[in-house]
Structure formats: C-alpha cells, structure tokens
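Q: What does the assembled structure look like for these inputs?
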Amino acid sequence: MSNKKIKVYRDLMGENQKWATKTRELLKNKNISMYNFIGSPGAGKTSLLEKLSDLLKDTINFAVLEGDIATTKDAERLDNKNIPVSQLLTNGSCHLEAKLIHYALLDFPIDTLDMVIIENVGNLVCPAEFDVGEDLKIAVLSVTEGEEKPLKYPLLFTEAKAIVVTKTDLLPHIPFDMNLCIDNIKKINPNIPIFPVSVVHNTGMSEWVYWLKELTKK
Amino acid sequence: MSNKKIKVYRDLMGENQKWATKTRELLKNKNISMYNFIGSPGAGKTSLLEKLSDLLKDTINFAVLEGDIATTKDAERLDNKNIPVSQLLTNGSCHLEAKLIHYALLDFPIDTLDMVIIENVGNLVCPAEFDVGEDLKIAVLSVTEGEEKPLKYPLLFTEAKAIVVTKTDLLPHIPFDMNLCIDNIKKINPNIPIFPVSVVHNTGMSEWVYWLKELTKK
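A:
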C-alpha cells in the first residue's frame, strides 16, 4: 500500500439532498408548509417577514428560520413580533444547507405550526442551488436593484415559484421600469406570479398575503 | 489494481492562488494597479464605473473586467464609454477566479494601461474569499441595503481597503442612518476610508476620485 495521500471528495450535494428529503417527509407528516425566501442583501426580506407576522397572526401559525453569516440582528427583529424564530448562523458560508434546517425544525414546537418561512442568507446566487426541503422558493427583489437582475441571476428566477418585488414606495425617486422588470422575469419564467409590494406604504400586500394563505391553507 | 472509482479533490484554492501570484507579478512588471470592486446585486457598481470613466478619462488609462453569471449587459454599458472592457461570464459560479482574470488581462492592450478595475459578480459573500491578484478590494454598499450590512457580511468589510457608500441621493426617502453605518464599519475595520457618494447628484465623487488617483499615480 502506498502512503501517497489521496484526498477524498465527499458528495456533499447528495448528503444535502438526503437531509432535504428527510425534512420534506417530516413536514408532510406534520402538514406544515415551508417556503424559502431568497434575495440580495438589503432586498427587504426581514421587513417583509415583520409585515407578514402582523397580517397573518390570527390565521396562520408560523415560525421563521433566519439564515445569516454573522449576527442575530434579523432574528431579534422578528422575536419582537412574538413569533417563534431561530437564528441559523452559517459562519462564513454563503447559503443554508438542509441538515441545519432539519435540526432547527425539530427544536420548534412543531405540532403547533402551519407554516415555516426560511429567510436565506442575503445572496442572489448560491442559496438557489440548494434544496433544503422547502415546498418552494420565493424570490425577493427590490426595485433599487434594477430591472435586469432576473436576467443576470437566472437560476433563482427560474427556480422560484413566486417573486415579490419590494420597496415600490421608492419608485418615484429611481429610474426603475416595472413593466420592463416584469418582461424580463417572464422571459425566463413565463407563468410565475409577481407581487409588487411596499411594506412602508402597505400596498400590494393583500394580493401577496392572499396567495400565500391559499397556498398554505389546510 | 481495483476498479473502484476514487474521486480526486483538487486543491482549487491553491490553484487560484498560483494564478493570483502570476497576475500580481505581471501587473507589477507593467506598473498597472488593479482594484477588485465587490458589492451586492444592484449596489451601483456599474454606474460608479460609468461615472469614473467620465472623471478619469484624461488622467488615467483604465480598463474594466466585468464579472457576471449571465448576460453582457454591464459590459455593453461600459463599452458605450469607450473604455476597454471584457465580459467575464462565470456560467453559474458566484465569484471570479484568478485564472480567468489572468487570461483576460493578457488580451487587453496591456502596455497602454495604468489601472484595471474588476467588477466582481454581485454578491457580498463569495467574491471576498478569492484573491484574484488585485492590489486591493473595494467594497461598494448602497444606502438602500441598510446600516447593518458591514456587521452581517464581515469578511468583505474586513478585507476591503476602502468602502464606497452609494445612492446617497435616496437618503431623504429611506430611514438609513449614515453615522450608524460608519460606526458599524469602524467596529470591524477601524481605519478604512469611507466615501459616501451619489452618482446621480454627483456628490462625494471628487474625494473618492482623488483617493483613487493618489493610489494609482505613477
């Protein structure tokens, strides 16, 4: 036997998929829906969740898994809303993986829940590549990012099953063309529902919340 | 010899570092400065480069390497400014690597250049991990992303040697606290120069351009 060192490549995606499948079975058994919110840093994911907690609190019992590289700032914001929330720190990694999600779910009072929302690490690229056992991925895009982002980051906008376009209150102050943005999205994902919203002005929220409730109802 | 398939793990970071070192030698020999601009999707990196091309055109000869996952939209914008620009498409990958940068540099009219700017893939996480042979990394953060981003994405804001805070023209319309943002940056990188700018209103640009010129002057 030679003593040459052979580096072994572990099939990490296979390992991730195993945990995603396990999570999907768990959620099915418990009749819980799980959505994976993915968007850039500062797209307004946490603000959207704060607003959802106000709008859904009497109809859907939900918990949040907050993904971040460092700090517990987002989880603290949601904790103020009195919803179950856990902070998942990736310690440098650019996305959440299925195993961490699975264990965090087991620590929730899972039998009381209808829905779990994952706020993934702020990143338009890597989180889209990982199945974490969610029912579906939802893309969050702010108008300040520009109309061309769906074309420049095609994986997420192809994988997503809905797109929330945030910060529409800023439209009077920026040269963003909503119709062009929608055309760009339709080029890569023709039938996807698109929800332009402003959390600050509370516009567009009822359509978006209605869609989410219909998807989640028992 | 067994026919068991052994997967081989290539030391990719070592490979990357080899190309980064090679690039650094090339740039030193040619007396060219190279800066790696890193920020979120929509932070305003391309607009900043368009503006730089106007402000620097008579003093510094520079070229741009445009990193994107898909589309040549950003390179087209800069091509309109008549500066040498190449589009580097990563085909799904979330960051630029040193080998691609090296070969793209060799294709430029390199003896005519004083400076090369890399616009990395829009991502606050992964591009910060890769040395591509640059002199230094410059973080680009827009005010619409929020004051806490330097704490939530500490690697980039620690690695960076300057921070440009963009879109300050939007400050009257959003609850962004510039002093808090600067305090957050100083917590992880106490002496870093910070340049708040608006490309639209052309404010803060002269300090930022002065700093860049001083750094680059021959």
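Strands of chain A lie at 33-39, 62-68, 85-89, 115-119, 136-142, 162-166, 194-196.
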